[in-house]
Design goal:
The complex is a heterodimer.
Chain A (H helix, E strand, L loop, with lengths): L14 H8 L4 H28 L3 H5 L1 H6 L8 H20 L7 H23 L4 H20 L7 H17 L19 H27 L4 H16 L2 H15 L9 H27 L2 H9 L4 H31 L11 H10 L12 H30 L5
Helix pairs in contact in A: 5-6, 5-7, 5-8, 6-7, 6-16, 9-10, 9-12, 9-14, 9-15, 10-12, 11-12, 12-14, 13-14, 14-16, 15-16
Chain B lengths: L23 H34 L29 H33 L5 H15 L3 H13 L10 E3 L3 E4 L2 E4 L1 E4 L3 H29 L6 H18 L8 E3 L7 E6 L18 E14 L13 E3 L10 E6 L2 H6 L2 E7 L3 E6 L24 E14 L5 E3 L41 E5 L5 E4 L12 E4 H28 L2 H9 L4 H31 L11 H12 L2 H34 L1
Antiparallel strand pairs in B: 1-2, 2-3, 3-16, 4-15, 5-6, 6-13, 7-12, 7-14, 8-11, 9-12, 10-11
Helix pairs in contact in B: 2-8, 2-10, 2-11, 3-8, 4-8, 5-6, 8-10, 9-10, 10-12, 11-12
The chains are: A mainly alpha, B alpha+beta.
C-alpha cells in the first residue's frame, strides 16, 4: 500500500513556532493575547507619556540629599560614602574570589550594586559637587576590591573578620568619636540621620542582632527545661501575634518607662531598633526552628556516639546543617524587614518612606493641589525599594537552587 | 581530641554517685531556677520603674478611663457612634473596623490571588509574564508605600463628589470622598419574609441530605450541594414574590420641594405633620417629580490639578435620564455677555468652566478660564434649569428623603424672589410655623412606591454629600485595595506552588481515564493542591488582618489608629498597650485555631 505524501511537519523552532506555541495556541489564547497586548501597550504608552511630559520630577531631584541621608551634614557626607566604599570593596573581594565556574550569586549582587554606584558616580560628576570625589572613590573601591579578590584569593581567609569588623567600624564612622567638635570625626547625633541611609541601618542592625537572638530563642523553644521552653514560646508567640507597627508604637511609649530614663536620653532610633530587633528575632527563631527540625535525629545520635559534648554537637553538627537549610528563609525575612522599616515613621524617624511623606507635605504652593507630585513620589519610592528587594529576592532564589532546598 | 580510656566494665553502683555538677537533671533544675530568678528580677525592676514613672508623670494606670467621654470623631462606623460615647465604644468600633476591612480583604485577596496564581501557569506567555510581573512588583514594594500610593496618588485626586463624580455603570459613583454603590436595604416587610428564608434553609438542608444519600447509594461522582442551594433559592424567591408589595398604611411625609427634604413617617392622626410620638419610617421607596425648577450657584475660583482650572461652576449631580431637558443660564445674562463670558461644560449640566473666549473661536482653550491678571471669574450667579425632573429614591434609616433644593424658575431677574404661593404637590407645604420663611414654592409631586421586603437604594448627591446606597470611604478603599493587592501577590505564589506540587502523573492518569480538562482540574488536581495551599493561605489571612494596622497611613480608623489616638489623648499608655496586644493576640489565636482545625480536616481527608 502506498503511503500518501504528507505536508512537511510544522517547524518546532523559530519565532513563528514560538509565537504559535506561546501566544496563539488556541482561539481563546489568541483573544487573551491580543487583549493583553492592547492593554499593556495602552498602559505603557500612558505611563511613558506621563513620565516624560506630564510628571514633575524637579521636586524629587532637588530633595535627593534629603532622600539619601536626611540632615546629615554636607561636609561630612564622605563618612557614609566611606562606608559604602568599604562595603562595596568587601563585596568586590568576596565576589572576586569566587571561582567563575561555581556560583555567581555574590557576583550578581556585586555587579548590580556596582552598576548603581557607577550610575550615581556619573550623576555626581555631572551635578553634585559636594560628593563628586566621594563617589569616584567608591567606584574605585568597587573595582579595587574585585581586582584584589581575583588576583589574591588568599585574602579569603581574612574576609569573615573584615566583614565582622565592618559593622562597628561603620557605626564609628557614621556616629563619630566624642571629643573635639572641630574634628572631622565629630559626633553626628542620630536625630540627624535619616533617608535611605537610615532604612539600611535599621535593616542591617535588625537582621544582624536578631540572628543570634533568634538562634537562642529557637534553641530555648526546643529545650527540655520547661521554664526556659515556655518563656521562649510565650515571647515568640506574643511578639508574632501583634503587628510590627504596634510594637514600634509600644516601644516608643514603653522604652523610656522601662529603663527609667528621661525620654530624650533614648532617642527614637534606639527605640525603633529595640522594637525591630525583638520583632525580627521572634520570626528568626521560627525560621531557625524549622532548620533545627530538618536536621535528622541520626546526626545528633551519631555525634553523641562519637563522644561529642552537647555544646560540641550543637556547634559542629546541628547548627551548621540547620542554618544552611534556612538561609533562603532568612534572606526572605531580611527582604521583609527591609520593607517593614518603612513603618518607623510611627516613632518619628525620617526614613526613606517618611521623607517622601514630608516632601509631599512641604511641596511648594504651586504644586500643593489635587494630584500634586504624589504620584511621582510614590512611584520613585516604590522603584527604589523594589530595586533592592527584588535584587535580594533573585539572590535568594539562586541560593535556594544551589543549596538544593527547593528540590528535597 | 583526647581519648578517654574505658576504665572499668563494672556498672556504676548506685552508691557511686555522680558529682552534682555533672548531674544533667540537677543542672537543668538549677539552670531553670537561675533563669526564673533572672526573669523575675528583671520583671520586678521593670515593674518598679514603670510604676514610679507613671506616678511621677501622673498618668492613668488602670482601665477607668474607658468610661470617660471619648470625643473622637470617627468617620465610619458599623454601629451607631457619636463623639459623646465613651472610649470603650470607640475601641469596639476600631475593632469592628479592623474586622470589616480584614474580612472583605480576605475574600477579595483570595479571589484575586487564585486568579493571578492560575494565570502564572497559563499556557499564554504574555499572561504568564504579566502575572509574574504583578507578583514581583507587589511582593517587593513595602505595603506602606502601596497604601500611600492608592490613597494619596490615586484616590484623593479623584474628581469632587459634589458635581461630577465618576459615574460607573450600575449607578455606582466614585469621587474623592469614596465609592457609593447601590445597596439592598431590609424594609419592615422583611420580617414577613423571614419564615420563608428559614423554611428555605431547612428545605435546602433536607434536599442536600437526600441527594447526598442518593449519590452515595448510586456510588457515582456528584456534588450534593447544588440541589440544596437550588431548593433554598426556589423557596426564598417564591416567598419573596408571594409577599404583595404595599404602601404602608397611614404613611405620610412632610416633604417640601423648596427645602429639598422631608421625612417619611407613620401619620397616626392623619394631620400630615410629624407629631410627637409618631414614628419615622425607614427605607420607603419614593418618587419625586418636579415639572420645572432651578438650582442656583455662583462661580468659584479653584485650583485643580496642575491645569490651574479656575472659575468653576458646580451644581449637584443630576443624571441625564432624570430630566427631560436641562439648561444652564446666567442669572444676569447681560452682565455676562458684557464681560464676554461663556460656559464650557466639563460634565453637563453639573460642572462647567466659566471662560472668556478671547480668541473668538467659540471653544474653550486653556488659559481662557482666567483674565489677563491670572484671576478667575468668581461670583457670577448661574441657574441650572431642569424640566420634568424625576428621581426615585429611598428614605434613609431615619425616614429622611433629600433631593437638590429647587426654586421656581425666575425670569432672569436676580433680585426677584417669587411670592409665597402655597401650592400643589401631593403633600404640599403645610401652612403653619414654617410659612414665614418660605420665599418660594415649587410644583412637586411626591409619592410613595409600593415596597417589598428588600428595596434597592441607589446613591445620589442632593447637596454635597452622598445619600442612599452605601458609601465606602476613600480611606477604606485605599487600605482595602492595598491589602488585597499586596496579599494577592503572596497568595498567587502559594496557589502556583500548590498546583505545581501535584505530580504530573496525576494529571496524566486523569487524562488516561478520559476526564476532560475541567474534570481533571476540579476532581484531581484541585483537591490535592488545596491540601498544600490552605495552611499557608490561612497564615496570609492572618498577615492581612495584622497588616490592616497600617490604616493610619490611609486615615482609616481601626483598632490600632484608635488606640494611638486614645493613648495620645488620655496618656493611659500601659492600659492601651495591653489592649492593643490583647486584641491582636485574640485575632492571631483565632486564626491559629482555624488553621489547626483545617490542618486536622486535611489530615483526615488524606487517608
Amino acid at each position: 500500500m502506498m503511503i500518501p505524501s504528507r505536508l512537511p511537519p510544522v517547524p518546532a523552532t523559530g519565532a513563528r513556532a514560538w509565537l504559535r506555541d506561546n501566544l496563539f495556541s488556541s482561539t481563546a489564547n489568541s483573544i487573551a493575547s491580543v487583549v493583553t497586548l492592547v492593554l499593556v501597550a495602552w498602559l505603557g504608552i500612558n505611563l511613558f507619556s506621563w513620565m516624560f511630559f506630564d510628571a514633575t520630577w524637579q521636586q524629587i531631584w532637588n530633595n535627593l540629599k534629603l532622600f539619601a541621608v536626611y540632615r546629615y551634614p554636607v561636609e561630612l557626607l564622605w563618612r557614609p560614602l566611606a562606608i559604602i566604599g568599604m562595603v562595596m570593596f568587601l563585596l568586590g573581594v568576596s565576589s572576586g574570589i569566587t571561582p567563575s565556574g561555581e556560583t555567581n550569586i555574590t557576583r550578581g549582587v556585586f555587579w548590580s550594586f556596582s552598576g548603581l554606584v557607577f550610575l550615581l558616580t556619573v550623576l555626581a560628576l555631572l551635578s553634585w559637587e559636594s560628593v563628586r570625589l566621594g563617589w569616584v572613590m567608591v567606584s574605585l573601591a568597587c573595582l579595587a576590591g574585585y581586582t584584589l579578590g581575583r588576583e589574591k584569593p588568599i585574602v579569603a581567609k581574612a574576609l569573615p573578620w573584615l566583614w565582622g569588623a565592618s559593622l562597628p567600624l561603620g557605626f564609628v564612622l557614621l556616629y563619630g568619636v566624642p571629643g573635639d567638635a572641630g574634628n572631622i570625626l565629630r559626633v553626628v547625633e542620630t536625630r540627624e540621620w535619616g533617608g535611605f541611609m537610615l532604612t539600611l541601618i535599621i535593616s542591617v542592625v535588625g537582621i544582624t542582632v536578631s540572628f543570634p537572638l533568634g538562634i537562642a530563642l529557637a534553641l530555648g523553644r526546643r529545650s527540655k527545661l520547661p521554664a526556659i521552653k515556655y518563656f521562649c514560646i510565650g515571647f515568640i508567640e506574643i511578639i508574632r501575634g501583634a503587628p510590627l507597627i504596634s510594637w514600634l508604637f509600644i516601644a516608643s511609649l514603653l522604652v523610656p518607662l522601662l529603663f527609667n530614663v528621661s525620654p530624650d536620653r533614648i532617642g527614637p532610633l534606639l527605640r525603633a531598633l529595640v522594637a525591630v530587633t525583638l520583632f525580627s528575632s521572634a520570626y528568626m527563631a521560627e525560621n531557625v526552628r524549622g532548620g533545627l527540625q530538618a536536621v535528622p535525629r541520626g546526626q545528633r545520635e551519631a555525634a553523641q556516639a562519637l563522644g561529642l559534648s552537647g555544646w560540641q554537637t550543637l556547634k559542629m553538627i546541628v547548627l551548621p546543617q540547620a542554618l544552611k537549610a534556612v538561609i533562603p528563609a532568612i534572606v526572605g525575612q531580611s527582604i521583609g524587614l527591609f520593607k517593614d522599616t518603612s513603618l518607623v515613621f510611627i516613632v518619628g524617624l525620617f526614613d526613606f518612606f517618611n521623607i517622601a511623606n514630608t516632601v509631599v507635605a512641604n511641596q511648594p504652593e504651586s504644586l500643593l493641589v489635587t494630584g500634586g507630585i504624589r504620584l511621582e513620589l510614590s512611584l520613585f519610592v516604590a522603584v527604589i525599594y523594589f530595586f533592592f528587594a527584588y535584587r535580594m529576592s533573585i539572590a535568594s532564589r539562586q541560593l535556594e537552587k544551589t543549596l538544593g532546598v527547593g528540590e528535597r | 581530641m583526647t581519648t578517654r580510656p574505658i576504665s572499668s566494665n563494672k556498672p556504676i553502683a548506685s552508691k557511686d554517685t555522680i558529682p552534682f555538677y555533672r548531674n544533667v537533671k540537677l543542672i537543668g533544675v538549677i539552670a531553670q531556677v537561675i533563669f526564673v530568678i533572672i526573669v523575675l528580677a528583671a520583671g520586678t525592676v521593670i515593674y518598679l520603674n514603670v510604676t514610679r514613672a507613671l506616678r511621677a508623670s501622673n498618668l492613668p494606670a488602670n482601665f477607668d478611663f474607658l468610661d470617660v467621654r471619648a470625643g473622637i470623631p470617627i468617620a465610619e462606623s458599623p454601629i451607631r457612634y457619636n463623639t459623646n460615647d465613651p472610649y470603650w465604644r470607640a475601641l469596639v468600633i476600631g475593632f469592628l473596623n479592623t474586622l470589616k476591612v480584614s474580612l472583605v480583604g480576605v475574600v477579595l485577596a483570595t479571589l484575586l490571588g487564585i486568579l493571578v496564581g492560575v494565570l502564572r501557569l497559563s499556557p499564554n506567555w504574555l499572561l504568564r509574564q504579566l502575572a509574574s510581573a504583578f507578583v514581583e512588583v507587589v511582593r517587593n514594594t513595602p505595603l506602606a508605600v502601596q497604601i500611600v500610593f492608592w490613597f494619596t496618588a490615586i484616590l484623593t485626586p479623584l474628581p469632587p463628589r459634589i458635581s461630577n463624580p465618576i459615574q460607573l455603570p450600575g449607578n455606582v459613583l466614585l469621587s474623592n470622598v469614596g465609592l457609593a454603590i447601590p445597596w439592598l436595604e431590609n424594609t419592615y416587610l422583611f420580617v414577613n419574609w423571614l419564615p420563608w428564608l428559614g423554611g428555605g434553609v431547612l428545605a435546602g438542608i433536607l434536599a442536600y441530605g437526600l441527594r447526598k444519600r442518593q449519590i452515595e447509594k448510586a456510588d457515582h461522582h456528584g456534588n450534593p450541594w447544588w440541589l440544596g442551594v437550588v431548593v433554598f433559592l426556589a423557596v426564598a424567591i417564591g416567598g419573596y414574590l408571594s409577599i404583595t408589595p404595599e404602601i404602608p398604611e397611614n404613611a405620610a411625609t412632610n416633604f417640601r420641594a423648596d427645602r429639598g427634604r422631608g421625612q417619611v413617617f407613620l401619620d397616626a392622626n392623619q394631620d400630615g405633620e410629624l407629631d410627637e410620638g409618631e414614628q419615622a419610617l425607614a427605607y420607603i421607596p419614593t418618587r419625586v417629580s418636579i415639572e420645572s425648577g432651578q438650582l442656583s450657584t455662583t462661580s468659584q475660583n479653584t485650583t485643580e490639578s496642575r491645569r490651574n482650572v479656575t472659575s468653576i461652576v458646580r451644581f449637584p449631580l443630576i443624571r441625564a435620564n432624570e430630566v427631560s431637558d436641562a439648561e444652564v443660564v446666567f442669572a444676569d445674562p447681560e452682565a455676562a455677555s458684557d464681560a464676554g463670558l461663556q460656559l464650557h461644560f466639563v460634565d453637563f449640566p453639573s460642572e462647567s468652566i466659566l471662560y472668556q473666549d478671547r480668541d473668538g473661536d467659540g471653544a474653550f482653550d486653556n488659559g481662557e478660564q482666567f483674565d489677563e491678571n491670572g484671576e478667575g471669574f468668581a461670583g457670577y450667579e448661574l441657574f441650572l434649569r431642569v424640566y420634568d425632573f424625576r428621581r426615585r429614591l429611598v428614605a434613609d434609616r431615619d425616614g429622611q428623603v433629600r433631593i437638590p433644593r429647587f426654586e421656581p424658575i425666575s425670569d432672569g431677574e436676580v433680585e426677584e424672589s417669587a411670592p409665597a404661593s402655597p401650592s400643589g404637590g401631593l403633600f404640599g407645604p403645610p401652612a403653619g410655623n414654617q410659612a414665614d420663611d418660605t420665599d418660594s414654592s415649587i410644583e412637586a409631586t411626591f409619592e410613595l412606591v409600593p415596597l417589598r421586603p428588600w428595596v434597592l437604594s441607589t446613591p445620589s448627591v442632593p447637596v454635597t454629600n452622598y445619600v442612599g446606597g452605601i458609601t465606602l470611604s476613600t480611606s477604606f478603599l485605599a487600605l482595602l485595595l492595598a491589602l488585597v493587592i499586596h496579599t494577592a501577590g503572596f497568595i498567587a505564589e502559594i496557589v502556583r506552588a500548590g498546583i505545581q506540587a501535584v505530580p504530573k502523573g496525576q494529571r496524566e492518569a486523569a487524562k488516561t481515564l478520559g476526564l476532560n480538562p475541567w474534570q481533571t482540574f476540579s476532581i484531581v488536581t484541585f483537591p490535592q493542591a488545596l491540601r498544600i495551599i490552605l495552611p499557608p493561605m490561612i497564615s496570609q489571612y492572618l498577615n492581612l488582618s495584622k497588616n490592616s494596622s497600617l490604616a493610619p497611613l490611609a486615615a482609616y480608623v481601626e483598632l490600632f489608629a484608635i488606640s494611638v489616638i486614645i493613648a495620645n489623648q488620655t496618656g493611659a499608655t500601659i492600659p492601651v498597650i495591653l489592649i492593643i496586644i490583647a486584641s491582636y493576640l485574640l485575632i492571631s489565636f483565632t486564626f491559629a485555631l482555624i488553621l489547626n482545625i483545617v490542618n486536622d480536616r486535611i489530615a483526615l481527608v488524606e487517608r
